[in-house]
Specification:
The chain contains 21 helices and 21 strands. Helix 13 links the parallel strand 12 and strand 13. Helix 7 crosses helix 18. The longest helix has 24 residues. The two termini are 48 Å apart.
């Protein structure tokens, strides 16, 4: 889930004294062991709960570092794990004394084991290899112990390789080619491990330290910080393409409309970028290069040129050619708020519905920068100009973002008043209230807020606030993610990255924390994320929830005149839920979702290779169709989603209730 952040510029002062000593130092280009303790103290000076490095925190850091080294438990054995734990004994004393040899020792051991598994994979995939689609194995590393020894690790690897082969066969690849690709995967793992830099080791340790505090604190290396800033301001300077790494190749996933790549007409989704060059100089081969390093070479200042060598599959052959593009500012419009309209008819009357797709709370802190709150205000004005009868605010895929924008957006739907309170590190200090101070009610009509289990953080503030003021009907997953904490992003001097640290817990106007519990839906819909392991409470070291006194503001309500809006009544919510449940039970799309959820629950974490073969081909076809679809086609598919359709149905029912109409519930219909 995205962090709920106040933005970099605003927070650059808070807590910076703890890491200011770095600024005065003579630095080489990157992190050094001597700064680890100083940066750790930067986390502890700001974290809402932890202030000291103690034995419990040291144990957590070690556990998180082991997860980072081998997240799938494929490489290390229990003996290796014990050796790493021993080397990290009194870890805070070691970093304080500028002794980081334990990081190098652990990395050396990991490299040995990665080479061991690589050698075993090649041996296992020799001419005698037979694919077995009946293979079953548990993929959840949290549910299985570390292998006792190398033999046990290799036995598990056999099953994992069967799964990998199955993935390739599901794309109509021949067995020999699938075997070659799997071997390449393990060769690349060796290469990546060998290329791990000292800077990578220190960044990895600091991130493990942060994640030992709570799930949302983390360390941003320079590259990660740059990506975070791009995400928050929704713009970058580059070629306008979304890239991924597949089998050692950098693959063009999507083209950003209006970007340099799309406007050139020369690049297509699924093209492979095999070499990159600047305006002058030699081309550099980027096959098997880390994606972040390839992206770094392609990005650049507006107006500069970048040269790409493209490999494209054309029928049974492959075409290779060079393209020169001029970098320009790219607006990541797919992440921006947008509105679509749909016309419906109720009892012979036409109604116009606005559906606001709102995937993130973005905010560019630079002067004149774009913000989600300003964009939302414009969209609501457009909806008013088009005289819509109701609005659906879709937060179902929104993982959070800017806290200030969340406060402003919630305030668009009522007059003014408290939106959220934030606790601080100082337990004796009262929670700070954040208010909407704009008396304008931008939208006073019927409102439905669509959520899911992955709606988090700022999404939970907006949906929880609107629910507490009885302003909007919450429709969607049984509850939201349950992230009730606030993070600050504090840059480290000399371009060494930043710390993202949890500085407080937040509470919605009822006084409830959304931590763990989330925001309960008034009208529950089946959803693909409604599984038992999605949510804050399932994350490592999740902070406990709290409750404070309610702080609902009477001045938020407008009973009559301009901006008047109607409070939701309990009996309305009951009727809306009953009518929706009846429709959902008859809907084939929702039936499919329920069937998939039941299958997943019955299967647990055990993967059957035969099911991979059956399911993956169809999924890949759908994903490829999405990537090459036009903006109009994507919008059409979005509006067809069953949860969007049902949210509009609930809204139509709400419009009638607010108009004083009487709805017939399924129970009433059955008795007539």
């Amino acid at each position: 889930m995205s962090s709920l952040s106040r933005g970099i510029k605003v927070l650059a002062v808070a807590g910076s004294l703890a890491i200011s000593s770095i600024a005065a130092a003579q630095l080489k280009d990157g992190l050094e062991c001597r700064y680890l303790t100083v940066i750790e103290q930067g986390f502890l000076a700001n974290h809402v709960k932890y202030s000291n490095r103690d034995a419990e925190l040291a144990t957590r850091v070690t556990e998180q570092y082991l997860k980072r080294l081998d997240p799938s438990k494929i490489y290390l054995t229990q003996t290796d794990v014990d050796a790493i734990k021993k080397s990290m004994t009194n870890v805070f004393d070691k970093t304080k004394n500028r002794d980081c040899s334990f990081l190098e020792e652990a990395q050396k051991l990991v490299l040995e084991r990665v080479k061991d598994r690589d050698a075993f994979a090649k041996k296992y995939l020799d001419k005698s290899f037979k694919f077995d689609s009946t293979t079953e194995f548990s993929f959840d590393p949290d549910k299985k112990p570390w292998p006792k020894n190398g033999d046990e690790a290799n036995e598990y690897l056999k099953k994992y390789i069967q799964f990998q082969i199955g993935n390739y066969l599901a794309t109509d690849m021949k067995l020999d080619e699938a075997k070659k690709n799997v071997i390449k995967n393990y060769d690349r793992a060796v290469k990546r491990t060998q290329e791990t830099t000292e800077d990578d080791l220190f960044s990895g340790y600091l991130d493990s330290f942060a994640r030992a505090l709570d799930p949302h604190s983390s360390f941003f290396s320079r590259d990660v910080l740059e990506d975070f800033e791009i995400q928050m301001r929704l713009s970058l300077e580059g070629i306008g393409a979304t890239l991924s790494s597949q089998d050692g190749f950098t693959v063009v996933e999507q083209l950003v409309p209006g970007g340099a790549a799309a406007k050139s007409g020369l690049i297509e989704p699924q093209d492979k970028i095999i070499a990159v060059g600047q305006e002058k100089g030699a081309m550099e081969n980027v096959i098997d290069m880390d994606l972040k390093d390839v992206v770094k070479k392609i990005r650049g200042n507006k107006g500069t040129k970048v040269r790409l060598t493209i490999l494209r599959k054309s029928g049974d052959s492959k075409k290779r050619f060079d393209v020169t593009l001029t970098r320009e500012k790219v607006n990541l419009e797919d992440e921006a708020a947008s509105i679509n309209y749909i016309d419906k008819e109720i009892n012979g009357q036409k109604k116009k519905i606005g559906v606001i797709n709102f995937p993130s709370f973005y905010a560019d802190s630079r002067r004149g920068g774009r913000s989600s709150a300003a964009d939302m205000k414009k969209l609501i004005k457009e909806a008013n100009d088009k005289k819509v009868d109701g609005l659906v605010l879709d937060l179902s895929n929104n993982g959070g973002g800017s806290l200030e924008d969340a406060v402003k957006i919630a305030g668009l739907f009522f007059k003014e008043g408290n939106v959220v309170k934030q606790s601080s590190k100082n337990e004796g200090r009262a929670e700070a209230a954040l208010r909407d101070t704009d008396p304008t009610v931008d939208w006073a009509g019927p409102l439905v807020v669509l959520t899911s289990r992955i709606s988090a953080s700022a999404s939970e503030i907006v949906s929880g606030t609107l629910q507490d003021y009885k302003r909007g009907v919450i429709v969607g997953g049984d509850h939201t993610y349950g992230k009730g904490s606030v993070q600050s992003v504090l840059p480290i001097p000399n371009n060494l990255g930043a710390i993202k640290v949890t500085v407080g817990m937040f509470f919605v106007p009822s006084g409830k924390s959304t931590q763990h519990r989330g925001v309960d839906a008034d009208v529950v819909l089946p959803g693909p994320f409604s599984t038992d392991d999605i949510g804050e409470k399932y994350m490592d070291y999740s902070l406990p929830p709290k409750t404070i006194e309610a702080f609902i503001s009477p001045e938020a309500y407008v009973k009559e005149g301009p901006g008047a809006w109607k409070e939701l009544k309990p009996e309305w919510l009951k009727q809306l839920s009953e009518r929706s449940t009846d429709r959902v039970a008859k809907n084939d799309e929702f039936k499919k979702i329920v069937d998939e959820l039941n299958k997943a629950k019955a299967r647990g974490k055990v993967i059957r290779v035969s099911e991979v073969l059956k399911d993956k081909n169809e999924k890949e076809k759908k994903e490829k169709a999405k990537k090459v679809a036009s903006k109009a086609k994507k919008t059409e598919e979005y509006m067809k989603r069953p949860d969007i359709q049902e949210a509009t149905n609930v809204l139509l029912d709400l419009i009638q209730l607010e108009d004083g109409k009487t709805l017939v519930t399924p129970k009433q219909a059955n008795t007539k």
